[in-house]
Write a structure and sequence with these properties.
By secondary structure, this protein is mainly alpha-helical. It contains 22 helices and 12 strands. A hairpin with a 5-residue loop joins strand 8 and strand 9. The termini are far apart. It binds protoporphyrin IX containing FE (HEM) and calcium ion (CA).
Length: about 650
């Protein structure tokens, strides 16, 4: 019988193979006479079975599958990362899932039925291109000729620092703030902060791993040289080694759930979630101050209790005033939704109210991101394509994980729209205060003084944003995290150095990945980078292949109405495509467990950031395009009043009882 099966296996199109015919011709011989043939067949058969089994296992854990999707951005498959699957082989936790559950888990596990940890917090950023380290493992990339790359600060000084274009943007500052809010939803790279002042320690005690990438400041630096500073502190990012998963080359872990699910509000694991919930009425814990609702305060050990930090789903909530404002806004919005849902469903438990409100808020964040934010970032024509607005179908072969190239490279290009200053505007639309963005970092308590919250919000809404351009504002380029009003660090130097720290591929490789021609010489960059910048690049880098990704990406002239150049656009689009199609709970994907009803979806699709602002602040009239700067006048025809326009109907959530 067994031989018969083998026979069938080797029959092609109904014809027997020569080997088998031969055996049939001689079937009078004793069995042992066929020993060698049987052995060969057995071996071939075993190899086939093993190959088949390996390919099944490979398919099951193959986190490179997303690139095979027909819409994936990747045009050149020769350059795909090979190492993404290592984590899944070696360190992936085993989780048990109930796929009929209507709600996301807090850490994002159990989204994909075949790969339940895809996109969950504490799993790696995927790489679109293999890591680039000089030793192939962890040492920062060097030039093609083996020499060190130019210092990140030297690049900033020679290429970007003095290029400030002061033309006001047609978008307002709120656009930038939404970008940072979404960035923190999908990406959180832990930094190896161990209290060392790396620049000092480097001189006195040698170099720890965390400190081995401090940034050299040129002696003729136009800013730092005045203070005789020649070293910028910088610590390397944590790696999977810090998460008990030693991998080579270095692999970096995303502490946030990779999905756009509001994890920066709620937390990316059960512990944080439980610390933020009030466990009554589905609400989050909040503090009432001066009749306004704010985030709870963290148990930050400060000698001055008035200088608290906020507790939220993401520790970066305190980084700058704009992001702190958004955390309060969404805390208030969550609690508002929970309150409204309770009115419709008085019998719902705290758990049900919390989960339904969280689901509602997560859906709105996705809706705003895809319909209001991305069309401006990527350009309206570009976002019309079905990559971003598809057929509402979930595709389980698409990996939704945040890519290293997106997080450390392409999306950071938008640091170029951070304005130097925020305006505080009162209810009469008079500017009452102008604040440097770098002066109010890590001091969210300032938001709670007087009417600062509403005034900053009015300022973000009605102040023009910084025009997208190949430079960062001078304050964020010199004074970030300053403690004494004198000198701080440089965000652009950090971004360049972080790219090297995390082994990002150089710019030319990213061009290739995105289907742009590979530049064989600096002159070939002329298709997309202005000639003056190409000359400067030539003085800095010894080869066109050495240019850092973010440097090339920042210099690219955006096409049409996009805010970013082609290469970053391609990487940003890749992420948001995968984040939509590869998220089983994406708000308008059909077929998800407990998907929104038709009426509910209609309401969700009608809600914009405008509604959220109206329900959570004293701002009482808003421009029709929320991210556009409009005239402040009360009677501007470009504005709608909150009381007329922005009611949210929660009736479709009323549960029908028979
Ligand atoms: C005032 C506004 C902002 C400030 C002060 C700020 C500051 C920072 C800082 C200090 C880092 C970490 C740098 C490092 O050590 O590597 C960072 C990371 C990042 N920023 Fe911003 N940023 C702002 C706005 C934005 C905006 C508008 C975007 C995008 C639209 C953005 C996207 C990102 C991303 C994707 C990361 C990496 C996050 C991670 O994986 O940890 N940021 N930002
Ligand atoms: Ca998330």
């Amino acid at each position: 019988m067994v031989n018969d099966i083998v026979l069938e296996t080797w029959t092609k199109n109904g014809e027997r193979t020569g080997l088998i015919r031969h055996r049939n011709d001689e079937d009078t011989k004793p069995l042992h006479a066929y020993r060698s043939q049987i052995l060969v067949i057995f071996m071939i058969f075993s190899v086939l079975i093993i190959t088949f089994l390996l390919s099944v296992i490979d398919f099951w854990i193959d986190d490179d599958q997303f690139v095979q999707s027909q819409h994936a951005i990747v045009k050149n498959k020769d350059h795909l990362a090979m190492k993404n699957r290592e984590y899944f082989y070696q360190c992936a936790p085993i989780v048990s899932c109930d796929y009929s559950d209507k709600y996301r888990t807090s850490n994002g596990t159990c989204n994909n039925p075949n790969n339940p940890i895809w996109g969950s917090s504490n799993t790696p950023f995927i790489r679109l291109v293999d890591a680039h380290y000089s030793d192939g493992i962890s040492k920062l990339r060097t030039s093609s000729d083996g020499e060190p790359l130019p210092s990140a600060r030297e690049i900033q000084v020679k290429l970007f620092l003095n290029k400030q274009i002061r033309i006001p943007d047609k978008n307002n500052q709120l656009l930038m703030q939404w970008g940072q809010f979404v960035a923190h939803d999908v990406s959180n790279l832990a930094i190896d902060i161990n209290g060392e002042d790396c620049c000092t320690y480097k001189n006195e005690l040698g170099v720890s791993r965390a400190c081995e990438a401090t940034i050299k400041i040129p002696i003729d630096d136009p800013v730092y040289s005045k203070y005789n500073i020649t070293c910028m502190r910088f610590t390397r990012a944590m790696t999977s080694n810090n998460y008990s998963c030693p991998l080579q080359p270095l692999t970096f872990i995303d502490d946030a759930s990779h999905f756009i699910d509001g994890s920066q509000i709620y937390g990316s694991n059960d512990y944080v979630v439980s610390k933020l919930r009030s466990f009554t009425g589905g609400t989050l814990i909040s503090v009432l101050d001066n009749n306004q609702e704010f985030c709870p305060r963290s148990s930050f050990n400060s000698s001055d209790t008035n200088k608290y930090l906020y507790n939220s789903g993401d520790s970066r909530a305190n980084l700058n005033l704009g992001i702190a404002l958004f955390h309060n806004m969404f805390l208030r919005f969550h609690n508002y939704v929970a309150f409204k849902l309770k009115i419709e469903n008085s019998l719902w438990s705290d758990e049900k109210l919390y989960q339904e409100s969280r689901r509602f808020v997560g859906a709105i964040i996705q809706h705003i991101t895809y319909t209001q934010f991305l069309p401006i970032i990527l350009g309206k024509n570009y976002t019309k394509d079905e990559v971003l607005y598809g057929n509402n179908k979930y595709d389980p072969t698409v990996n939704p994980s945040t890519s290293q190239e997106f997080s450390t490279g392409a999306f950071r290009v938008l640091h170029n729209i951070i304005p130097a200053q925020h305006r505080f505007i009162d209810s009469n639309y008079t500017t009452v205060q102008i604040v440097n963005v770098t002066d109010w970092m890590n001091c969210p308590y300032l938001l709670q003084q007087g009417s600062n919250y509403d005034q900053l919000l009015r300022g973000l809404l009605s102040t023009e944003g910084r025009l997208s351009q190949p430079s960062y504002n001078p304050l964020i380029s010199n004074l970030m995290f300053h403690s004494n009003n004198l000198i701080g660090v440089d965000l652009l130097s950090y971004d360049i150095q972080r790219g090297r720290d995390t082994g990002l591929p150089p710019y030319n490789k990213m061009r290739q990945l995105c289907g742009l021609p590979v530049a064989k010489s600096f002159d070939d960059l002329i298709d997309i980078i202005p000639i003056d910048d190409i000359y400067k690049l030539e003085t800095l880098y010894s080869s066109v292949d050495d240019i850092d990704f973010i440097v090339g990406a920042l210099l690219e002239t955006p096409e049409n109405d996009a805010l970013v150049g082609n290469t970053s656009r391609c990487i940003i689009r890749d992420f948001f495509y995968r984040s939509r199609v590869g998220d089983r709970f994406f708000y308008d994907n059909n077929g998800q467990s407990g998907q929104f009803s038709k009426n509910q979806l209609e309401i969700i699709k009608s809600i914009n950031l405008d509604h959220i602002i109206c329900t959570t602040s004293s701002v009482d009239n808003l421009q029709k395009n929320i991210f556009t700067k409009v005239d402040n006048g009360w009677y501007s025809p470009m504005k709608w009043s909150c009381s007329e326009k922005y009611m949210i109907d929660f009736k479709p959530w009323k549960e029908q009882y028979d």
